[in-house]
Amino acid sequence: MSVDPTSAQATASDVARAVRVKRVTASAVIEAALARIAARDGVFNAFTTVTAERARKKAATIDETIAAGGDPGPLAGAPFAVKNLFDISGVSTLAGAKINADLPPAPRDATLIERMELAGAVLLGGLNMGEYAYDFTGENSHYGPSRNPRDPSRMTGGSSGGSGAAAAGGLVPITLGSDTNGSIRVPSSLCGLFGLKPTYGRLSRARSFPFVDSLDHLGPLARSTEDLALSFDAMQGPDEDDPVCTERPAMPTLPLLDQGIGGLRIAVAGDYFERQLEPVAAEAVASVAKALGTTRKVVIANAAAARGCAYVITASEGGTLHLDRLRQRPQDFDPDTRERFMAGALTPAAWYIKAQRFRRVFRAHTLKLFDEVDVILAPGTPTTAPSLGQKTMSIAGVDMPVRANLGIFTQPISFIGLPVVAVPIQRPEGLPIGVQVIARPFNEQAALRVAAWLEKEGISAAPPA
């Protein structure tokens, strides 16, 4: 039985197929999505801006193109929304901050928005996030917390909290987020979504508000691997406006999803990635490894040190970026964010230099693992979603701060720019949790193949919207 393309359960792929064969108009899909946002977002608090008139105009143009016999693109009529650090033409780029509300409207869309719309997708607005992306919880002191659609008393994870809430809550099938230390993968794990943090430099960051330039990635969150691949393929390609996204040509991944896992060498990350996690996270990794038929383990050596160095680089670059704002308007920061940025601005230059040197060594040693394996499995988060406002969590008998430690397993991976697909694990009862599927640089296709196979076999699936 086909899915109603105007429903919350419809994927972007469902929508595009129906729109292209005239089973439904893009305008009808967009009106239904706008109605869902109006009805549900009072609970989820995912959107900070809804670009309704823009969306209606874009949908009408798609319908006119189809009526004239033209090609509307592979994402024809599919609604999407973006973390509010993406520039949206005519909208001030908030990046989750009170201070940025005073910025003039952006004169042009971010590159990834332009590419999504060129493929036929329809932008519905900007999404809530942690202030300046320095957050793992999805809680924002200025615009309120995003709420987890699986349990609105729980965190979405951050900093792409609105992106997680909007996709998991069925407001739109695809959202875009950013991931510096885990901000796509943490919400994906806590909200039960597929998420892709691509290779560093694979997708353009042009006209998005930066956090840590040497660590920032942008990517999609969705409720299916097909949607993840569709959107990733639409956004790929060099961009002169982003100096780290100038070399790799687009490499379609969607046609590879049906290849299965034959020939892929798969292992599980041991040692660091087996400690400081709740049983539910360990069980999720074990269930995926069993389904994939692997008992092999590898050790990503010095992962704890990598996480520590990621913190040094994050604090130093972030604090330096915001130094003028800290001097001029300290009272307008979230106090938690302000204190971390201030500490970062005081980081000795020698620490930063040593962290970057270690980063090169850690990357070289970790990449050697991919001479022996193609994919490495690791936990997405150490636990399921904590309660909103919760400050500490007990993991393996150790009390630790929530805000700093939800990304304990994601930071060592983004530190060296590896591509990762976060996959939600089927849990008939209880809150969602995810597993990271990690590959060598520019081999997103391997991680997506594993994710697609797990989804096909029913091991991995997003809960109903």
Give a short account of the largest sheet: 11 strands, mixed
Question: Counting H and I runs of at least 4 residues, what is the number of helices?
Answer: 15
Radius of gyration: 20 Å
- Unreliable parts: none
Number of domains: 1
The fourth-level CATH homologous superfamily is Amidase signature (AS) domain
Mean pLDDT: 97
Overall geometry: globular
CATH class label: Alpha Beta
What does this structure look like?
It is built from 15 helices and 13 strands. It is an alpha/beta fold. The protein has one domain (12-456): Amidase signature (AS) domain (Amidase signature (AS) enzymes). The strands form two sheets. The chain has an eleven-stranded mixed beta sheet with strand order 1-3-2-4-6-5-12-13-9-7-8, sandwiched between helices. Strand 2 (79-83), helix 4 (111-118) and strand 3 (122-127) form a beta-alpha-beta unit. The protein is globular. The two termini are 17 Å apart.
Key structural traits:
two-stranded antiparallel sheet, alpha/beta, globular, 13% strand, 11-stranded mixed sheet, Amidase signature (AS) enzymes, single chain, 15 helices, 465 residues, 13 strands
